[in-house]
Amino acid sequence: MLAQEVVQSQRTRGEHCTKVKNSAPKYVEPTHYKNPPAFIKDLVTKSQLVDMTKSDSAYHARWMNGRRKAFYPDRQKAIRALATVFCRHINLVTHQVELSLSTAAHMAGLATLSKGEAERVAEDDLYQAKYSISRASRAFRDMVEMGWIRADRSWQVWDKHSGVWVDKYYEVTPVFFDALGITFERVERQRNKRLGLLKSQGLNSGLTPEQVGKMSISQIKADGKLRWRRKAFERNASLRDKKKLTRQMRVKTAQEQRHVAVKQVMATLGDKLGTVSKDAFTDMVNKEVASLRSFTGVERPPNERLN
């Protein structure tokens, strides 16, 4: 009989800790944000004053889902912080939260950087740190299970070029507002008011009365999903280009960096290259070099001389 192998743990006693890094997650309004509509402002205020996890809706949903125990304090804080971020970014017509879950986690103070990632950032200025949003993901999952958030699997799209799922599309439900103490009637009044404003803006922008008449909530929601996915694909493509160009630009000499810029300019000009003078071409290359360095974050090599 073979002896049973003893699996050695990789953890070191005293180094592993299950305590959360941010014991008081909180949404902080970015300074560049404009003043929101009064209803959005009221939602944000209520989310900070009312403990949604102890609302009648929360207790009922937990019981229906077979959960008998209350949430631990850290999970409650995560849910409340995330809910505040969602309140600030709700589309009043479609009820979509127009923010990726990753960005929401950062804004709520729920994104963490591991020791290993911090060391890699310290060693390499150009390294893109990978933050963990597991705490936000678990809070989000609880909100879905309680019926506050709707994020159907059929709504999510796979980006085969980047090998990742595009930013999750999700919406708040009437139960979310109920947990805040906001009545369904008030939510519908705000939705109809905003829809009327969109139709008025459509007429002012040149749409025909027939086109404006077709502006329904379902149509606006469908257009919003397509627009969300398109932006997500464009963002992923931009990240791929940045990684590729960063690898190409991280060379030792200015001449090699110029070679990358030359190829970019030639690809852009195509057949029109023959109509461009040498001085104009050099000027375009110089601008492309500066643009690539700004885009990738690669610094200018010392003792560089322009051609």
Give the helix/strand layout.
Blueprint: H1 38-49, H2 56-64, H3 73-88, H4 101-107, H5 115-123, H6 134-145, E1 149-150, E2 158-159, E3 164-165, E4 171-172, H7 174-180, H8 184-204, H9 209-213, H10 217-249, H11 254-269, H12 278-296
Antiparallel strand pairs: 1-4, 2-3
Helix pairs in contact: 1-3, 3-6, 4-6, 10-12, 11-12
The backbone outline, from C-alpha atoms, is: globular
Strand content: under 5%
Low-confidence stretches: none
Largest sheet: 2 strands, antiparallel
Q: What is the radius of gyration?
A: 25 Å
Assembly status: single chain
Please report the distance between the alpha carbons of the first and last residues.
Answer: 76 Å
Structural class: mainly alpha
Number of strands: 4
Overall pLDDT confidence: 83
Helix % is 40-55%
Give the count of structural domains: 2
Provide a count of the helices: 12
The helix/strand series, from N terminus to C terminus, equals HHHHHHEEEEHHHHHH
Strand order of the biggest β-sheet:
1-4
Organism: Paraferrimonas haliotis
Pfam families: IncFII_repA (PF02387)
Protein name: Replication initiation protein
Region (Disordered): 1-23
Task: Explain how this protein is built.
This is Replication initiation protein. Residues 1-11 have a biased composition (Polar residues). Keywords: DNA replication. The chain is an all-alpha fold and 307 residues long. It has 2 domains: 38-182 and 216-241, no CATH class; 251-307, no CATH class. Helix content is 54%, strand content 3%. The protein has 12 helices and 4 strands, in the order H-H-H-H-H-H-E-E-E-E-H-H-H-H-H-H. The protein has helices at 38-49, 56-64, 73-88, 101-107, 115-123, 134-145, 174-180, 184-204, 209-213, 217-249, 254-269, 278-296; strands at residues 149-150, 158-159, 164-165, 171-172. It has a two-stranded antiparallel ribbon with strand order 1-4. A hairpin with a 4-residue loop joins strand 2 and strand 3 (164-165). The N and C termini lie far apart (76 Å).
